[in-house]
Design goal:
With 330 residues, the protein is α+β, with helices and mostly antiparallel strands. It folds into 2 domains: 3-153 and 313-318, 3-Layer(aba) Sandwich (Aminopeptidase), CATH 3.40.630.30; 161-287, Aminopeptidase. The chain is 26% helix and 29% strand. The protein contains 8 helices and 13 strands. The chain has helices spanning 13-24, 32-40, 98-112, 136-144, 184-194, 198-208, 270-284, 298-302, and strands at 3-7, 51-55, 58-67, 81-89, 117-120, 131-132, 148-159, 174-178, 216-221, 224-232, 253-261, 289-295, 307-318. Strands 1, 2, 3, 4, 5, 6, 7, 8, 9, 10, 11, 12 and 13 form a 13-stranded mixed sheet that branches.
Amino acid sequence: MGISYLLLSKDMEGEITRLWNKELGREFPLRKELFRQNSLEDENVLIEGSWIALEKDRLVGFVISKMWKEDLECVRNRKDIGYIQVILVDSEYRNKGIGSELLIRAEQSLRTKGAKTVVLGQDPWHYFPGVPSEYIDTVEWFKKKGYVEFGEQYDLYCRINGEDKITLPALPEVEFKILSDVQKDSFVEFLSKCFPGRWEYEALKYFEKGGTGREFVVAEKKGKMIGFCRINDSKSPFIAQNVYWAPLFEEELGGIGPLGIDPHERGKGYGLAIVQAGMYFLNRRGVRNIVIDWTNLVDFYGKLGFQIWKKYLELKKTILNDKSNRNCSI
C-alpha cells in the first residue's frame, strides 16, 4: 500500500467533509461551511502541521493542527500551546500506521513552532472541547501516544415545549436586555476587565464579522453592565459552537454560552437569571431546542432543565522542545 502525505490544501474541502461524514456524520454532521470557517479560514491553522494522507487519489486520512498566531493581548499567554483540531483516518485504512504518521508530523511541527503542550480540541474555532467519550478506541489510542486525561466537559441540551412559559427574569435591581450596537465598545471593555482571554477574543471576532449585538444578552444594574450571555441561532454572523450540529435537528437549534457575571456581583442569583433571559430571547425568536456547549456545570444548568447531551474527555501531552530529532519520545 503506497500512502503519500501532502500538506492541507483548500481544494480538498469536499473530500475531507465527505470522509468526516462517512466516519462521524451520524453524531457530528459536518457542513462545508463549518469546515471552511473552522479549518480553512482560521488564520491560526498551522499549515506545516496539517496534512492529508492519500492512496493514489483517494483521501484516507487527515490531521489539522493549530497554534495561536494572532497578535492580540487576550491570547498572548497561550503561545506555547499547540492544538490538534482533528485527526481522522478512514475506517477501511486503520491499523496501518497512517494515523501515527499524521500525528508525528503534526506534533513535530507544533514542537518546532515552540509548543510545549499539545491539547486535543479546544483550539480557536474548535470542533470539540476534547475527544467525544463514545470514541473509546480513539481515547485509548491517544493514551498510548502519551496523552493524559485532565478533565471532562459536556454539551447540554434542553427543549422548550409549547406549554413551557419562559419568562424574562424580573429582578428589581437588574435589567436584562439585548446588547445594542452603540454598546459595542463598553461591552468589549467589560469583557477585557472581567473576562480577559478567549471570551474577549470571541467577542472581538464576532464584531469583526459583522455582529450587531443581537447575539448578546447583557445584565445591567443601575445602568452599569454586570453580566453577559451569548445566544446563537441560524441568523448569527457565523456558525457558533453550540449550533455546530444543527443538522441533527429538524427544527431550529439555538445555543447559549459563554456567559459570566462580574466577580463583584456573584452569589446573588444573577448567573442563573441571565441564562433564563437567554432562553427567553431565543424562544421569542421561535427556538425550542437549545444547546449549551463545553461546560462542566451540569448541576447549575440542570436547574433550568438542561441535561447531558454529549460528553468529552480532555486530553493533553507535554512535548519536548527538541527540534532536531523527529523520532524522539514525545
